[in-house]
Write a structure and sequence with these properties.
Layout: H1 41-64, E1 72-74, H2 76-87, H3 92-102, H4 107-120, E2 132-142, H5 149-157, E3 164-167, H6 173-187, E4 205-218, E5 231-236, E6 242-248, E7 253-259, E8 262-268, E9 279-286, H7 292-299, E10 314-317, E11 321-324, E12 326-333, H8 334-340, E13 368-379, E14 383-395, E15 407-408, E16 413-419, E17 425-431
Parallel strand pairs: 2-3, 11-15
Antiparallel strand pairs: 1-17, 2-4, 4-14, 5-6, 6-11, 7-8, 7-10, 8-9, 9-16, 12-13, 13-14, 16-17
Helix pairs in contact: 1-2, 1-7, 2-3, 2-4
């Protein structure tokens, strides 16, 4: 296939970046009972860094493991909310580790941030002009470990809008699997099915805390893609092979910028006049066809990814724009991944550390913890559908203007779905093979 004929990233049309610094792994945001118009910028900033940092490290980790033919996605917001639900019921060393992990000063900051996140993540509805965004939480607790009243009423119901269900993991684990799967299917509007497999819950399970996030957005009218203009084009895989897939094209003026080693394109979603929420998808495309790992390493730098330069883009006329249609699901073990990237997932050596959450019988030696997330993303001519379910389980430039640039996403790239007012990144992913 012929090349574009222009060398993106040349000095005349590229923003040069400062020298890469070391990775920072701070943290992200959550939200309570009142409904603020927007999350506190201070709270959002400190909480955002942790989950966003984890998202970047996860994607980089998977690429380094030579998973060159898989697509990846996660929801930093969903992970953060699930971790916050656990932290709000913890005390002692476990709470200290959770606070350090989430970058919070105390449990009040966790709760305040959680309230703000819940408010930011619930807007729009079926049939409205703007996007549909819905966050729901679920809790299933074993009858042997009843919830502490204050945790159930003030935290689960008051902050997370969650009604806990009492179940019997010891004798009816597979029935609980069906209940959780039914909840996940409803929370994701049918996109996520079979979150748990039969036999996946052990009799020692004591509680499952889950967060479900659903997003459906339609491109702003002027940015919608005309299906009649779709073309089958080659997409270049990391290992050198190609696949022929449908590409979309349309509007010629986009918010766009070329940086040192990659370029960014913004596609806005239609918003509602009644809701103070604006969502956009950002596509991060390496200049080199095999440059995804270098891009992720750059975004994992101390100044990368949350740096506003990457989102403050100029509106320019582009010569050509081609973006592939894609749809995929991805499931990963959050706790295992955190260990792989050097972040310690909190363990519970003393069950009494969960006594703010559950009534703990004497003689319980320890609790093991596990967190899983499953994400589904679909991007087509009309817009985007995306859903995530996370569950935690406890077990016992100057110069002349350059030529018009092009944006042809015919090789592995990264994408972000961002809410512009709060600055929250709801979904982050990498497309390595859109044919899957």
């Amino acid at each position: 296939m012929a090349s574009d004929g222009k060398k993106e990233g040349s000095p005349e049309n590229t923003i040069q970046r400062p020298k890469r610094q070391k990775v920072s792994t701070e943290d992200l945001p959550l939200v309570p009972n009142y409904v603020p118009t927007n999350p506190s910028p201070k709270t959002t900033k400190s909480r955002k860094d942790f989950s966003v940092g984890m998202a970047k490290q996860l994607l980089l980790n998977q690429v380094k493991k030579n998973c060159s033919n898989k697509n990846f996605a996660l929801s930093p917001v969903s992970i953060d909310v699930a971790l916050g639900m656990v932290a709000a019921g913890s005390r002692g060393p476990t709470l200290e580790r959770m606070l350090a992990l989430l970058g919070a000063q105390d449990i009040d900051e966790i709760k305040q941030s959680a309230s703000a996140m819940m408010a930011a993540a619930n807007c729009g509805g079926e049939g409205g002009d703007g996007p549909v965004l819905c966050m729901v939480n679920g809790a299933w607790v074993d009858k042997r470990f009843p919830l502490v009243d204050s945790y159930e009423e003030e935290v689960l119901k008051g902050i997370y809008g969650c009604d806990a269900q009492t179940v019997d993991f010891l004798h009816q684990a597979d029935e609980v699997v069906n209940k959780v799967n039914s909840w996940a299917k409803n929370a994701s509007k049918g996109l996520i099915t079979n979150l748990l497999q039969p036999g996946s819950l052990s009799p020692e399970t004591t509680i499952i805390l889950a967060n479900g996030l659903y997003f459906e957005g339609t491109w702003t009218t002027q940015y919608r893609f005309d299906v009649s203009l779709n073309q089958k084009r080659d997409f270049y895989l990391l290992m050198g092979d190609t696949v022929s897939i449908p590409f979309m094209t349309g509007h010629k003026r986009y918010h766009y910028e070329s940086f040192d080693g990659f370029k960014v394109l913004k596609i806005p979603y239609q918003s509602s006049a009644e809701l103070n929420r604006k969502f956009s998808m950002y596509v991060f495309l390496p200049h080199e066809k095999v440059g995804l790992q270098n891009l992720l390493e750059e975004l994992c730098s101390n100044s990368g990814f949350t740096k506003q330069d990457y989102f403050n883009l100029r509106e320019v006329s582009l010569d050509r724009v081609w973006i592939p249609k894609f749809e995929f699901s991805y499931e990963f073990n959050v706790s295992t991944t955190m260990k792989e990237i050097g972040m310690t997932f909190p363990s519970v050596e003393n069950p009494e550390d969960f006594s703010e959450m559950m009534k703990i019988p004497t003689g319980i030696p320890f609790f093991a913890t596990k967190m899983i997330q499953k994400v589904v993303v679909k991007v087509d001519e009309k817009g985007t559908k995306a859903a995530a379910v996370t569950y935690g389980r406890v077990l016992g430039c100057g110069g002349p203007p350059p030529p018009k640039p092009s944006f042809i996403a015919d090789h592995p790239f990264m994408f972000v779905i961002k809410e512009e007012i709060s600055g929250l990144l709801f979904f982050v992913g990498a497309v390595l093979n859109p044919s899957l």
